[in-house]
Amino acid sequence: MTDASLPYLTPRFAHADAPSLPLYVVASDALADLAGQIGPEAAAWLTVTGFKGDLGEVRLLPGAGGALVGAVAGFGTPKARRRLRFGLVKAVAALPAGAWRIEGGLSRAERAEVALGWLLTQYRFGRYRSAKEGGLALLACPDGVDAARMIAMARGEFLTRDLINTPAQDMGPGELEAAFADLGGRFGAAVTVVRGDDLLAQGFPMVHAVGRASPRAPRIMEMRWGSAGPALTLVGKGVCFDTGGLNLKPSSGMNLMKKDMGGAATVMGLAQMIMELGLAVRLRVIVPAVENVVAGNALKPKDILTSRKGLTVEVNDTDAEGRLILGDALAWAGEEPCDLLVSMATLTGAARVAVGPDLAPYYCDDAGIVAALEAGAVAGCDPVWRLPFHDAYEAVIEPGIADLDNAPGFGFAGSITAALFLRRFADHPRYAHFDIYGHTPSDAPGRPKGAVGQGARALLHALPAMLGL
Q: Where is the Cytosol aminopeptidase domain (predicted)?
């Protein structure tokens, strides 16, 4: 097992002075133009081997005496590139270790996508593996691409993946707090934590109620960084494991629940990007961290909680606990002014049914924020999709016996009703909520099976427009 410090790996480009081999990138409709770059013999070699220029297809180029002199990678068709994000970096697996440089007429945006995707392919979760990885094919940062920004985005993503991938035995509330404190310490941020029964004394009753049954004490953590600029507050759901509580999940529903702190992991990854890049913001990060387990003192169905905001909540499903802890956290966030409030959570299965695992649905009523996020999603290769705060469903979350219902028996629009629940606590005109999944079901270019960040890069690219940076 490796050292448990996070992140476990550091993404990197090839050293600028390192000798590199050319990787010629060619679209499938431009093969005829390639001979002028690689020479007629190499072009004939491609023809003989049946190279078609499909997206991510690779041919190594032999030189005199069989020496490797370069490679050709297919860039496919525009349709193929739209269908497979980071598709070109499928080529990385076929390249020998060493330094490579991109040759070909890619646009600046395409070079940036290739650079980011190449960095993301370096991720491995090796904490529990004895086998050692071999050498890597490293990319020389392409011309016109900001290497520091690419590295910062990849490092933030690696942190998010490491946190989510770590099993609950080693990533409970205490370990998440340690990672949170380590992140703050690396950038000189101030970190405060409220734990256990102190949550009741300091006004976080719903965080306490959800986490009190675990021997690993619940807590709420706050990080502050930056002294000038607009105020940005990030809130992330930190349910380190979710059994469902007394409304116990079946085993199939529990298998991925180490990822139920994916919202916390994602805002921490985004915070690392922001701090590493030195953005001119006053950053505040809030993470409530709990385990939702079964014990004699566990939260019970039909219990009624009085939240930090004063709103009462009838608990109609102890497996809808994430919105409870976020309610207290968002209320705390709203007690001081900020220019933008964002929450991120692995909140509902309904969101997955609606948009699948690849898209991060989000909710926001501010047209400027929406426009910035749509552009940021394209620039960051980080797809998001807007869903509505549909006001007509407000009545669904009002049970009559209390102000709010944490799990209405409506049977429809589960992600929307959860977002409406959170909006009652956020109560901020510039609020965006992301209902993320945090998991890739199968290997994809730049996204190995397992944990993945969603929405963070879109937000990072959108911040200048959203906050006037």
A: 159-459
